[in-house]
Amino acid sequence: MTEDVLTGLRIHAKGWRSVYLTPEPPAFLGNAPTGGPASLTQYKRWATGLLEILFGVNSPIVATLCKQLSFRQCMAYLMINTWALGSIVEFCYALIPAYCFLANVSFLPKVIISFGLCLDWAQALGPLTHSQPSPQKSELLKCP
C-alpha cells in the first residue's frame, strides 16, 4: 500500500494525470495477512511507511509548494498519510470508559438547566413571540 501511495504521489507531483481502471477479471490481487500477529505487523509497516512519506522528501506539502501537486491532491495525500495518527485518538477514546469507571466521574455532561427553569423561560418569552395576533384564514383570502 505504501509503495502505491508513493508512486501516485510522485507521478502527480510531476504533473501527470491518473485514471482509475478496474479491469475484468482483476489484474492484480495482493496477499494480506488473515489475522493475529501477522496482521498487526502489516499494519505497523503500513503506518511506518506512510509516516515516512509524510515527513520525508516526498511529502505532499513539499510537492505542493515546490512541484505540480494541486491543493486538493495534497489534502487527499495528507488524509491518507496521517491515517496512522488516528490510532492515538482512538486509543484515548477507548480509555475514557475505564477512566470514568475508576475515577467515579460521569462521561456525560451534567445538566445545568432544570426543566422547571425551561418552563419559566418559555412562559416569560411567550408573549414576546406571539405579540401580534395571527391573521384569520378569512382575512387572508379577502381580495382588496
Task: Walk me through what this model shows.
It is built from seven helices and no strands. The protein is mainly alpha-helical. The chain has a domain of 89 residues. The longest helix has 19 residues. The chain is extended and about 65 Å long.
Summarize the SSE layout with pairings.
Layout: H1 2-13, H2 37-55, H3 60-66, H4 71-81, H5 86-103, H6 115-129, H7 137-141
Helix pairs in contact: 1-2, 3-4
Descriptive labels:
mainly alpha; 0% strand
- What is the radius of gyration? 29 Å
Helix content: 55-70%
Q: How many strand elements?
A: 0
Along the chain, the helix and strand elements come as HHHHHHH
Strand content is: under 5%
The rounded distance between the terminal residues' Cα atoms is 73 Å
Quickly count the helices.
7
Taking the sheet with the most strands, its summary is: none
**Averaging pLDDT over every residue, what do you get?**
79
* Model regions low in confidence, pLDDT < 50 over at least 5 residues: none
Instruction: Label the structural class.
Output: mainly alpha
Shape summary: extended
